[in-house]
Fold each of these.
Amino acid sequence: MNFRDRFLTAMEHAEPDRVPVMGLILDTATVNQVLGKKPTDLVGMLQKPILRSVLRALMNNHWYATRAQYRNAAAIMETAIKLGFDANWSLYWTMQLNPDPAASMGMAFHDAWGRVWEIGSDGKGNMVTNYTRSLCETETQWEAWVEQKRPVYDQLIADATTFHKRLTQAYNDRILSIGYAAPGVFENCWQPMGFVNFTKLVYQQRDFVKRMIAFHTDFYLRYLEGVLQSDVDIVLGGDDLGQKTGPLMRPDLIDTLYGESYRRIAELVHRYKKKLLWHSCGNIYLFLDKFIEWGFDGIITLEPTAGMDLAKVREQVGHKLVLVGNLDVSYLLVRGTREEIEEAVKQAIRAAATGGGYILSPSHSHALVDATRLQWMIEAAHRWGRYPISI
Amino acid sequence: MPDTLSTAIAELKHEEAIAMVTARIGRGDDVFAILAACRDGMTLVGERFQRGDYYLSELLLAAEIFKQAAAALEPLLARARFPAPVGRVVLATMRGDIHDLGKNIVATLLRAHAFDVHDLGVNVEPATLVAAVEEVQPDFVGFSALLTTAFDSMKAAADLLREAGWRNRLTLLIGGGVTTPQVKEYVGADFQTVDATAGVDYCMAVQKERQRGR
């Protein structure tokens, strides 16, 4: 069975030849490790005035930025193929490098929706960015921001469609490229405003929040349609609704505010006769039944460090959701022994793979995830994941 | 409008709560009584969080309201005779990490429970942490981490505290989304949690035991 048939069979809750294995974001350090590349010290370069100007001009140039994004995504696909994944997600993003006196380096990336991404190092010589704060704190600021960025959003949708088309054309004979439409509607509402500020708005300016949700839902559907038109077989959508110990916000409030948006997203994917995998970090037990109600086909990450137990999730949702993930990245895929990884893979397969509907993957990604350990994970999945499961 | 200040905070009525604080200051109410009402409000919020009526978003909003109320009271508190704090805490996000959301929640909740909190901020060098400990002489040191890149500096700081003879004189906590029991062992901490309220409860329980021991 080839990788596509294997993955799509699992998505139908049927048993393929073996449990499929999927990669997530493969960080630059992981890509370098597998492809034998050296890190590029962008952080060091950005701290030198002349180089900073040159780099900023390049990074903010549309022609250069779209090509750099594709090159990075292609390197991730090459890495995933070399490691032996059946599928890997692919994500298109747009950010501008701007002077930012409040940022630790005096500059930061600002994305199209109003987030600040501070620059740092992954400890292996590569640049990383992390969302730290918001750029729009009031209704007036937000209105002005989105009005100014309307042409950027249109361009983003066009660029993302081209990006995903190129990737599927280049790689669909070797690996399933899973198009990721991100960021999610909830994240796009709160992150550009700040979480505390957003919560205040939810309680005190509900009408404005509803307008924001309507705007971001409309954008998301347009973006998603672009991804769907790139011939991907599976689409990944997402919104981080959980944190380590539970939901970020009251589940009933999330349903009231966002439920209709999520239903429309699932309906659009199904109209194209595709499947929708949904990403959410955190402890999300309280949302599992809602995911089914909203129309999602599967859920991904299932963070073990947030208490997400694969057997418990399977018991709660049965085969109404495909389960993807659950291999720990806090210790197991960073410093775990081969035996520990093999045991974790066996445990995951035992808990969720019978009857199909399970895809093995890391529960997330970061720079310290070790490529050798990913390799061990995949080898263990190949060894123990043959159907019928007999562990 | 809610009847009391504590109810206003518990029900997340931001503007009303701050207006009440301002009005009570203007009336000349006892500053410690106002602060106690704010703390009672935070206690109610904590209870609702434990019950599952409130989630992280409500906790954060309440903490923000408390922070603003406390800031309004601070000039008066500085002039007043302050009762002894329940305990002293030094908090930091160590070198390699710039996130502070969890740390800020913990700091606010600890202050709401009458701890004297010294927040060193983010990306803190281990030597800076040790210098602060030598100055403040805290009962607790807390490290907050959202990035794994902070683990080594957390361990380095714990090692420096040991070398300087401070480690056995204080309780070391680590918290944050990426921390686990294995990380606690690696750093050499006494307590680890991913839940801010659990960290605060732990500090209160430890201080209570210490008081009993005296």
Amino acid sequence: MVTPLLPAHMRDVSVTRRGKRLLGPLDLTLGKTGFTILLGPNGAGKTTFLKALHGLERLSTGAVTWAVPNDLARMRQAYVFQSPVMLRRSVRANLGYPLAILGQPKAQVNKAVEAWAARIGLTPALDRPATGLSGGEKQKLALARALIRTPEMLLLDEPCANLDGRSVKDIEALLQSAHQSGTRIVMATHDLGQARRLATEILFLFKGRIHEAGPAPDAFDAPQTPEFKSFLNGDILI
Amino acid sequence: MNDIWAGLSSAFWLVVTGDPDLIEITLRSLQVSLTALVIASTIALPFGTWLAIRRFRFRRTAIAVLNSLMGLPPVVVGLIVYLLLSRAGPFGVLGLLFTPTAMIIAQVIIITPLIASITHQAMRDLWAEYHDLLISLNTTPTRRILTLISDGRRALLTAALAGFGRAIGEVGAIMIVGGNIDHATRVLTTAIALETGKGDFALALGLGFVLIALALSVNLIIHALSRTEREGRW
């Protein structure tokens, strides 16, 4: 039996760059299930939090531990960046890349690629360069590329920023579907409406610290901290 | 001006009549420069890419040295290779001096830093773009290098063509280590130097035009094969 990836523990995690503390110190446990939405104003440390969790950010103090050794943990996660990174290849090659590097047989990779392309509506564009897609198409492709390995945990950094309503809806449908299939999701967003639609759990970051953490309905209905209350009211937090 | 017209006319007749000496030295030029290019690219493309993605203690120094080596004086390279391959030198026993192999060795030494340096510059930008994604996907260092080389192949083609341009036009080093021996090590550039020395400017210019046409043809063929600039990207 395969050891599950989660829970993950962040212990005394902090990130400091050029004398400025960007994150922490944080102590947090991420449970096995749920759709966690990371909220916070610009510069609150949301991206740094996600990168620290995923191992893309060098920690100044503390550690992130998983239920499996850390070198195996990243293999079972996927990360979607705010600006989708497109390999300078076709849509087909972009989608298949995460499977191809695992050495999966070509026929198997192609089958998965075609299934995912159909799901995100990019079948006609499969052999076109991915760099020529629209912003919404790129983000859908980046999400499909992240999900094609069926990760146990998916981290997303504002995947719907600057996208049109149609693309946002498509992406939310893919995320809901992944969540229902058992993928643990942690996603940063600015969009309170989106947070209300998707979240089962809220983490509110401000100045690199967690100011609110808990089940989404409780957090929205009865915020515990003045900072989160102000954020929900649409006030500017400085 | 008369010399230029005479050169053009000479080049035309050399090509039209299929001059056997011209064909021989042209083929030798291509053989030496393309072999040097393949060997240098095999070393320089992965090395330049590795240098772009790898952090180590003396990285800046290594890049500065590599960039400086782009300006290696060919005559000095020729002299050093000559001393190494001469009968009294450490590799004299191999009997390579005054052979096309010696010329290839000299050209590899001259063009490897050039190709590696241009590769490094191009791959550094691509690595900045791909860094987070490839780390996130837990790729191995070898896979990262292969991905960058594959996706940056057009920039690498430019690097390789710059190397070819330097190799095909090089004269100082191959004159020293090749000796410009007729039917053995004579190539277009050394033949041009010889004819200029003899005062036959028309033939020298004719060979020069053939050399330019050859360099241009190789570039066009490589561009056509690699399908660059086939469609607008803006």
